[in-house]
User: Which sequence fits this backbone?
């Protein structure tokens, strides 16, 4: 699929677009795809640079081609060849954290946004995830339910492609699946151990094609999904959504544009977007009849809070005061173990997709536990380890280390004998976790930056304690040894700091009550009828699932609504 070309067809100031979209990731890309195919003339603003997996990806490079052997760099913190340009710290674009708090804010700066980074774990929220207050008394229910999103989940499955297996689990809905790849050797041992300790283990659900779909080739199992797929076999917004949108000749891209403010007229309707051209450092403005904010949950909140006027003194779409509030991230922790059964292995092929072939969805009833929300487990290890740092713990293995022949023999013996488990769980929104504008700090363009407040609650600490205990039990059942002691309560039981899992949600949450929510069930601002949000901001709550599939489904639903409303003359 041709990658969209960032060239203006007309100068923005001379034209009024049907829709302006801010952000080119999952939410922005899906909105552009649906709207252009429906006939809308769309302009999309992206703060980063053009990027194409076909021309810029490093899928076929060897680590030894780099002086760093693929190790991280400031703009590629997940490895020098990682397909995402961004990180927790970007020159000229600071953020602050309130004293006594800890939070890391990841941002992508490239076409396609975070869809060039994510692990492509593609899980639907289940029926219970939309009514957590009804079931457990915590948080709030969504104004929509699973049945409202089901047809859009189905449509995303058919468009993007996801592999998996039919399991008929009540709160882990099945999809329209492509065949799942077979488990690797170490994954078979994990499955056996999980069965023995009563942990459900099933084929994973990833948006990687195991069969050709919609003109895209099937995965050839090079395992380099995170570097950018030159065969377009895995999902990224650039290749799967923006490419087809570009072919309609109705998509105009404005690259390297830092949105400063969403503008409004005397009636309170949005009129367009003011932005900074990062190359010329000049202020520009693009006009549109509808504006969609899809810059990621926190960046979108920042833009809305900075869009102040006499009519909206606390920021656009913020009459309720909830913009920036109800911020959540996925809970997470990791456990790594050495498994003697995997030493001295017979040489074998563990190729596959760039991620797990199995995973462990939530299997217990929280009513019997001391924490209210569940989690899932993502295994990794075996021969499918990072090209850098994969043997950094060999000194902890029996007889590891040495020089010359002894070192080589140890590497041959022990490589592939390490397994890891990354747990990802649901957080309960709390009033101490939110973002706001810093009253003093601005970025290089003079735009006020975000200040983060963050606190985990006992709900999350107890959940992570359970994660640690479960993963240690699985490693023990494999006959292995955990490579680090059990973290203490003072260490948060090993919980990852806020923002480190990169699943920020909330900040512009949806609801029927405009006093307690920023947008309605169509992701339409209560205060401004021609303003919409299609990233993770409208989420009312976290689930024990990665959010991208739900962002895609919500964005498709919202874009369909915009098409219907424009045809009816309501927008």
Assistant:
């Amino acid at each position: 699929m041709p990658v969209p070309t960032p060239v203006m067809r007309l100068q923005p100031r001379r034209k009024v677009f049907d829709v302006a979209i801010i952000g080119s990731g999952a939410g922005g890309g899906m909105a552009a795809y649906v709207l252009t195919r429906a006939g809308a003339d769309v302009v999309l603003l992206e703060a980063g640079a053009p990027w194409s997996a076909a021309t810029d990806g490093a899928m076929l490079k060897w680590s030894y081609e780099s002086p760093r052997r693929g190790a991280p760099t400031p703009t590629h913190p997940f490895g020098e060849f990682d397909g995402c340009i961004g990180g927790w710290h970007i020159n000229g674009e600071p953020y602050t954290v309130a004293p006594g708090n800890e939070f890391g804010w990841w941002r992508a700066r490239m076409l396609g946004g975070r869809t060039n980074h994510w692990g492509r774990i593609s899980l639907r929220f289940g029926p219970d995830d939309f009514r957590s207050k009804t079931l457990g008394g915590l948080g709030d229910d969504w104004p929509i339910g699973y049945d409202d999103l089901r047809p859009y989940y189905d449509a995303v499955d058919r468009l993007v492609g996801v592999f998996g297996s039919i399991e008929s689990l009540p709160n882990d809905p099945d999809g329209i699946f492509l065949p799942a790849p077979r488990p690797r050797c170490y994954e078979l041992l994990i499955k056996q151990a999980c069965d023995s300790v009563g942990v459900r283990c099933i084929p994973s659900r990833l948006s990687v094609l195991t069969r050709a779909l919609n003109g895209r080739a099937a995965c050839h199992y090079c395992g380099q999904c995170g570097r950018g797929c030159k065969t377009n076999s895995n999902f990224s917004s650039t290749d799967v959504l923006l490419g087809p949108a570009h072919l309609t000749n109705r998509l105009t891209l404005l690259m390297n544009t830092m949105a400063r403010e969403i503008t409004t007229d005397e009636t309170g309707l949005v009129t367009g977007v003011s932005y900074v051209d990062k190359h010329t450092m000049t202020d520009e403005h693009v006009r549109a009849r509808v504006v969609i904010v899809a810059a990621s949950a926190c960046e979108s909140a920042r833009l809305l809070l900075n869009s102040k006027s006499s009519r909206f003194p606390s920021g656009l779409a913020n009459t309720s005061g909830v913009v920036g509030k109800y911020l959540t991230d996925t809970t997470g922790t990791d456990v790594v173990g050495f498994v003697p059964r995997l030493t001295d292995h017979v040489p074998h092929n563990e190729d596959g997709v760039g991620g797990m072939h199995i995973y462990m969805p939530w299997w217990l009833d929280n009513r019997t536990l001391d924490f209210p929300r569940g989690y899932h487990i993502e295994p990794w290890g075996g021969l499918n380890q990072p090209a850098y740092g994969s043997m950094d713990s060999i000194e902890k293995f029996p007889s590891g280390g040495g020089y010359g022949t002894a070192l080589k023999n140890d590497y041959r013996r022990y490589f592939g004998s390490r397994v890891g488990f990354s747990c990802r769980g649901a957080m309960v929104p709390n009033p101490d976790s939110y973002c706001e504008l810093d009253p003093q700090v601005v970025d290089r363009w003079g735009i006020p930056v975000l200040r983060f407040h963050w606190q985990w609650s006992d709900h999350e600490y107890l959940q992570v304690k359970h994660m640690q205990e479960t993963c240690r039990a699985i490693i023990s059942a494999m006959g292995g040894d955990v490579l680090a002691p059990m973290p203490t309560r003072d260490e948060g039981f090993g919980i990852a700091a806020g923002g480190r899992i990169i699943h920020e949600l909330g900040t512009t949450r949806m609801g029927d009550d405009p006093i307690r929510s920023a947008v309605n069930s169509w992701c339409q601002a209560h205060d401004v009828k021609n303003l919409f949000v299609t990233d993770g901001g409208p989420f009312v709550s976290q689930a024990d699932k990665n959010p991208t599939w739900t962002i895609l489904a919500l964005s498709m639903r919202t874009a369909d609504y915009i098409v219907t409303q424009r045809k009816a003359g309501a927008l």
